[in-house]
Amino acid sequence: MNLRRRAREEAEVDSSSLSDIMFFLLLFFLIASTLANPNVIKIMLPKAKTTTTVQTKPLILTVKFDERDASKSTILYFIDSEKSPLPLNEIEARLTAARDNAEDPENPESRLNVVLRLDRNLTVQQMVDVMEIGANLGIRMVLATDKTRS
Question: Where are the alpha helices (DSSP H) in 1-150?
């Protein structure tokens, strides 16, 4: 009588297509996360415990230091998601044009809202210089912050 056991075949999982699927999922999420962020100019916003949201579509004014300048003395100004920086003396003309396009004489609630995205390392004087332009033009300016986690 032959009592030897037969060699069993071990179960295998074919995972060759799994790497392709994971690659496509990674690619999809990378592209989707890039498109989800409309503010492509990266800055570190100051922190705040409470935040409010603006209901109308605002104009975004970003102020940051030039990363190529090691002394942090060059400040760059961007309106909305423009790639090229503007000089400070041109900001007033651009905000005036945007204010004139946004305001409706029949609707007093149609004031232009400007969201200021200021680098947290800016001095108070540099922040006041930008806010003073809006105050002179009668534009409502709101400071963007990151909400701190409690």
Answer: 16-36, 88-102, 124-137
